[in-house]
Amino acid sequence: MFTGGSRGQLISLTAFRSLGTVTGVIALLLSVSVSSSVPLAAQDRAPQVPADSVLALPELRVEIGRLRTGSVPIAEVPFPVNIISGSDIRGTTGPSVAGALTGSAGLSFTNQTGSPSQPDIRLRGFALSPIVGVPQGVSVFVDGVRVNEADASQVHLSLIPGTAIDHIELIRGSTGAFGKNSLAGALNVVTLRGEERSVEMVLEGGSFETLRATARGSESLGSFDGIVTGSYGRSSGWRQLSSTEEISLFAKIGGRGERTDGWLSYSFASHHLEGAGPLPESWLDGGPLPPDITDPPDDRRELQYTGGSGDLFRPVLHFLNGRIERELGDAWTLQANAYGRLVDFRQSNDNITEPDALGLTNIRTVGSTAQVSYEPTGRLITTAGVEWTRNDVEIEIRELPNRTFPSLTPATTEHLQTDENNFGAFGEIWWNFRPTVSLYGSLRFDYVALPVQDLLDPSGSGQNEFSQFSGGIGLSKSFDGGWNVFASYGRGFRTPVILEVMCADPDDPCQLPFELGPDPPLLPVVSDTWQAGLRMTKIRSQAEVTVYLSNVHDDIFNVTDLETPTRGFFTNLDRTRRTGVEASLSLVPFSSIPLTVRTAAGWTRATFESEATLSAPFLDDDDTEDPTDDGGPTPPQVEPGDRFPMVPSLTANLGLRYELSQTVFELTGAWVGGQFLVGNEGNDAELGNLDGYVLLDASLERSFRAAVFYLRVTNFLGTDYQAFGILSRNLRGPTEAVERFLTPGHPAELTAGIRVHLQP
Predict the structure, then answer these.
(1) CB count, 10 Å around CB of 376?
(2) What beta strand segments (E) does 276-410 contain?
(3) Residues 6+ apart with CB under 8 A from 483
(4) I want to staple 653 with a disulfide (CB 3.0 to 4.6 A). Which of 17, 29, 295, 601 is the partner?
């Protein structure tokens, strides 16, 4: 972190620079798969064809149901879907969920912390972020279990083992029975089952002392199957105080009978993630440095701002999940799961003019879902189900001594606890009522009880209850020649999180999270999304174009108290809006050349539609009367039409994959347009916006029997770009003036590795 103002400014700045942020930096295209909408489990089974043959792209199919029931052609669902296979998660970005999503239309990436393991993702202008304080608009599931964290609905994709993924399903739009946070859509990660006996090992190394090793074993004996995979990775990082170390383990055992199928899985993850964060633009441009930086590196992008111990995030995860499916008859199926998820977060933040801060969050989650499906024919699928989740959350924040306060006695400044209960009931139907026309509908009801207990001051405790209907309806119509049109409407919602409900009183504003108490209730955020599209599916090409409009009601933002600009409170704004166009094309242009081309583009416009004075990270407690006496910018005054920060209007991706005999070459690239900075929500700051940029990646694979050797170069042009931008005071500068703080994008990186797959 790069703050150092009044007490609590460290955490409040984290929230300020996150709230309302919708991103920018789009990562590169993962690899040139056959299509972003192809269920790539089918691709894994696609046979190899000679180079002079006509390559037929596999049939597109998508799962229907909260717990994945049935399968229907993608041309007969009324919303866009991306399905990405685990085999494609190697690609140019390595085995990670975030890497798998790169190159998707309308998806953009940024990075506040500077850690490659903690990217911010924006889908249609809504957030999928690991940062507490960012309003989350995407629900994320692992094997049907929601993994948005219970304290603030943030998502840590790095806790999902990339080496254990069978495929990833990304449903765009709020259509579906996925519950809270599904404003932009839902992401479901499906893990592997054990198959025939095999062992796979991967070892790779690269720039910045990077080392990764994974091992996976699979077995299937009669009706029983099992799989276990583990990985270890570390890197010193390319910037000061930016090292990473990640350990993960995943195991699953299952059994299949004549009418019954079940499995039990366990995931473990333990990470050590340093984040160097943004730097003042004056430092990057060669301006004066603080006296304690006596030997700066030649490349100033490598600097870390605070000069202390830096920021550190250490999560530990234990996740036990089980599912059983039973055929009750020729048309009826029962599915049920139960799970327990334990996660501990330890976040230490390095301050400058204030004590360091240590956040301890313990989350204990248990839950279960049951679903009954009725499928009398291949033209009708109906499901109905219920689910329950309990989240026990404890949050403690401590202040610690540092170089500025060496004699400080450590003390707890905030201690909260909640026992949250979530109940949901849902139903879905897909009906191909005419040979070329299909209907889809879903309806869900959620009830959330969120009591918050202040363990330091019992009078600060409060009770919050929310209930909401969500779901959607849509039609799909197919035509001769492989053409299809679709249209749908969906309603999504998200409930306020702990930090929001405990700081919502305009008569008692607070600097998060040090002064929380019972405040007036906030309303759930509700989105109404309309979308329509056109699909084309030919033997060697697939394309899709979607237009959408999302009107969001009662969106939650942190606004400034007019009497004391350094303090704020959360409130519901009447309206915000997201509109856009998404387009993708997958093409095998030549029947005699094994070349696949994939391209995608997205135009996104995320705007405020209500007037408000928002909080800003550059406000300082020294500004007791006028925060702009020093000529700095005023707090953001947003009006209808002002655009969200860190959302590029236009992104575009292009990928080429050439596969010949035992050699595969991939070239992927992305163009990202300019963006407004956090703190400039009013779009009128004079300090400038974030510039657009172009990135290119390349990879080469060569197979030798059971081994595959590969080289991967990311950002091989060495593009100097900025992955995040925010307006803040340079507290280590000679005048403490407000300036742009920028997170430098990752430089060129070379990785080499070997992958060995053995089948006795």
Answers:
(1) 11
(2) 279-280, 311-327, 332-349, 356-377, 380-400
(3) 534, 535, 536
(4) 29
Q: What sign does the CA torsion over 720, 671, 112, 733 have?
A: positive
For residue 541 the two structure tokens come to: 């090409």
Specify the residue for token string 């897909």. 430
Task: Please give the Cα distance from 126 to 450 (Å, whole number).
Answer: 24
Integer-rounded Cα Rg, in Å, for the chain is 25
Cβ–Cβ under 8 Å, residues 679 and 17: yes
d(CA 72, CA 44): 18
Of 589, 665, 718, nearest to 299 by C-alpha is: 718
CA angle 560, 566, 572 (to 5 degrees): 20
Kindly report the number of other CB atoms within 10 A of residue 734's CB atom.
10
Tally of residues, the chain: 760
Q: For 487, left (φ over 0), alpha (ψ -120 to 50), or beta?
A: beta
Provide the sign of the torsion angle of the four alpha carbons 72, 74, 79, 82, taken in this order. Answer: positive
Residues 6+ apart with CB under 8 A from 582: 80, 105, 106, 172, 544, 545, 546, 548, 600, 601, 602
Q: Are 307 and 279 in contact (CB under 8 A)?
A: no
Neighbours of 539 (CB within 10 A): 12
- Quick one: three-class SS letters along 302-317? HCCCCCCCCEEEEEEE
pLDDT in tens, 178-220: 999 999 999 989 999 999 999 999 999 999 999 999 999 999 9
Dist CA 357 CA 654 (whole Å): 43
How far apart are alpha carbons 101 and 180 in whole angstroms?
22
**How far apart are the C-alpha atoms of 449 and 466, rounded to whole Å?**
7
CB 201 within 8 A of CB 229: no
pTM over 0.85: yes
CB 677 within 8 A of CB 633: no
- Of 141, 145, 68, 130, nearest to 340 by C-alpha is 145
DSSP string, 176-239: SS--TT-SSEEEEEEE----SSEEEEEEEEETTTEEEEEEEEEEEETTEEEEEEEEEEEE--SS
pLDDT tens readout for residues 344-381:
999 999 988 889 999 999 999 999 999 999 999 889 99
Return the H-helix or E-strand segment holding 448.
strand 437-454
